[in-house]
Specification:
mainly alpha; 12 helices; about 75% helix; globular
């Protein structure tokens, strides 16, 4: 009989902590933080879980060989239940986004859902896989911006998308291991992502022409959080360069997933919501603890 623990493993429940920060970062960048933001974040989580369930349904044959312990090949979740859950979560996610954000949110939630299913069913095992997954995360950031000036959130969307490309590129070598060139490329990408998130937006000086104390702290916060992100995720990739075995790759992928909230926090702080950025970043250590119980990969 399928249990809640089996379903949590199917959808990689702890990894969902890396999702609300997309919406929050997008809303902060677009000046759209408000009562709708938590509901849009909830819609994003539903769509993420849908993608995880659809991923395992699509990979059930391969997992039977490479990961027989996963919920579907082990018999703990039937294929029909997995695809049914994925479809239901997709409808719920798009419906919630449309209900709280109207047409503008629906105009982003629908292509986001289509991109998620397109990745799982078509693109995942092709050269386009990392790019399609990056598009999914970029659209997720823009979903949060749907209540404001969406164009202002494009830099944040591109930053999160670039991070996602690095994680997805590594994840394709979780079973076979990688050559040293791959983690060197993703590490370079991580450095660029962190640098992008660390640059504070222009802020007006006080009347003396010098930033006051709180303004200086606010300006430094994106760099601090981006540095935290780079240190955690970058260190895991350095280990893959030294030892590109499958185990090291999986560890790096996990670090990329659970470390994403720190990057999202930096982007949220860049949008002028420093305290909220700290709250978003706090999901990173929590995600690492939960990942010890349920794998995020």
């Amino acid at each position: 009989m399928t249990t809640l623990a089996d379903l949590a493993e199917l959808v990689r429940a702890p990894a969902a902590l890396s999702v609300p920060g997309d919406v929050v970062a997008g809303a902060a960048a677009a000046g759209a933080l408000g009562p709708r933001t938590p509901a849009l974040a909830g819609a994003s989580v539903l769509l993420y879980w849908a993608g995880m369930a659809a991923n395992d349904w699509a990979d059930r044959g391969l997992d039977a060989v490479e990961r027989p312990e996963r919920p579907i090949p082990s018999g703990r979740v039937t294929p029909a239940a997995a695809v049914g859950l994925a479809a239901g979560l997709t409808v719920a996610g798009v419906g919630l986004a449309a209900a709280v954000g109207g047409r503008r949110a629906a105009a982003l939630a629908v292509p986001l859902a289509a991109s998620i299913w397109g990745y799982d069913l078509l693109a995942k095992n092709t050269a386009a896989g990392p790019a399609v997954m990056a598009v999914c995360r970029g659209l997720d950031v823009l979903l949060g911006a749907s209540g404001g000036r969406v164009t202002r959130a494009l830099p944040a969307a591109v930053t999160v998308a670039a991070h996602t490309w690095t994680v997805t590129a590594l994840s394709r070598r979780e079973v076979s291991g990688a050559d040293a060139a791959l983690p060197m490329r993703t590490l370079a990408g991580t450095a660029l992502v962190a640098a992008s998130a660390a640059i504070p937006p222009a802020r007006p000086a006080d009347q003396t022409g010098v930033r006051n104390g709180p303004a200086r702290v606010a300006a430094a916060l994106p760099a601090v959080l981006a540095g935290w992100y780079a240190a955690r995720y970058g260190a895991a990739q350095v280990e893959v360069v030294r030892d590109p075995s499958a185990g090291r790759v999986r560890t790096a992928v996990g670090a990329g997933i659970t470390g994403l909230p720190a990057l999202q926090g930096a982007l949220t702080a860049r949008g002028g919501a420093g305290l909220l950025g700290l709250a978003v970043a706090a999901a990173a250590p929590l995600g690492r603890r939960l990942a010890r119980k349920v794998s995020p990969t």
